[in-house]
Amino acid sequence: MTTAAPILSCENVTVAFDGFKAVNGMDLKLMPGELRFLIGPNGAGKTTMLDVICGKVKPSAGVLRFMEDVDISRKKEYEIAELGIGRKFQAPSIFVGLTVYENLELSMSQNRGVWATLRATISKTDHMRIMRQLDMIGLTHRAHVAAGGLSHGEKQWLEIGMMLMQEPTLLLLDEPVAGMTDTETEKTGELLQEITKQRTVVVVEHDMEFVRSYATKVTVMHEGKLLKEGTMLEVQSDAVVSEVYLGHGRDASAVS
Ligand SMILES: Nc1ncnc2c1ncn2[C@@H]1O[C@H](COP(=O)(O)OP(=O)(O)OP(=O)(O)O)[C@@H](O)[C@H]1O
């Protein structure tokens, strides 16, 4: 039997902003096909950790290895994206004046200009890819609606769909269900589970109901470090985790 190699391995990662260590010796290992939740109180360093993985900020110490042997610690953001790491920020970045279909079409061919892409005749293969993607994100019936007219949840799914058109190996999502209705949140959880049949996903999340429903493994960060890793049950019953969360208003429910 062969043991699968990690898709991402972060060792002793530190990020300093003017001497303040937002991430301070963090370790994180992800296996292929994982849906990993990264939680922790406000200011724990979760978003900064995603920023380092996608190359938006550079670590002052530590090593990040992607696909076993590619050291991405010093690579530029676009190089990391080309290697197959996609990052979705909280606010959706979609073209509101274009239709859902056109947004997906554009994300497939980002190195061509907008008008060149939209004027070119689309191949049957590309059309089928877009149709499959629309089906996956549940927006087939909204294909020809301007993206600006979508609901908040639909916009988030469209952006996830746009990222998937680039075929990333690893997807990083920052609070994807923030502001969503309960129904939208549930649909997002199902979508993430579907995505992890083929890819690895890391989700930074504060919505503990959502984490409880969909997490198999949870990583807790505190003061820039790994505090605890395990199932939600293991994490919730940990005394140190409880202590850390106490007094952190919106996060206190994590351990209650
Ligand atoms: N560019 C920056 N310059 C200076 N300090 C920063 C910068 N980015 C983040 N920080 C600080 O680093 C710490 C960690 O921030 P980060 O956003 O990573 O935490 P977080 O766990 O994602 O928090 P939250 O859950 O509130 O989003 C915070 O104290 C924050 O103020």
Automatic annotation (TrEMBL):
Print the keywords alphabetically: ATP-binding, Nucleotide-binding, Transport
Q: Which residues form the ABC transporter domain?
A: 8-248
**Which N-terminal residues, if any, form the signal peptide?**
none
List the SUPFAM superfamilies hit by this protein, alphabetically.
P-loop containing nucleoside triphosphate hydrolases (SSF52540)
- InterPro entries under this entry? ABC_AA/LPS_Transport, ABC_transporter-like_ATP-bd, ABC_transptr_urea_ATP-bd_UrtD, P-loop_NTPase
User: Does Transferase show up as a keyword for this record?
Assistant: no
Q: Give the protein name, as stated in the record.
A: Urea ABC transporter ATP-binding protein UrtD
Task: Name the species this protein comes from.
Answer: Paenibacillus septentrionalis
Taxon lineage: Bacteria, Bacillati, Bacillota, Bacilli, Bacillales
Gene that produces this protein: urtD
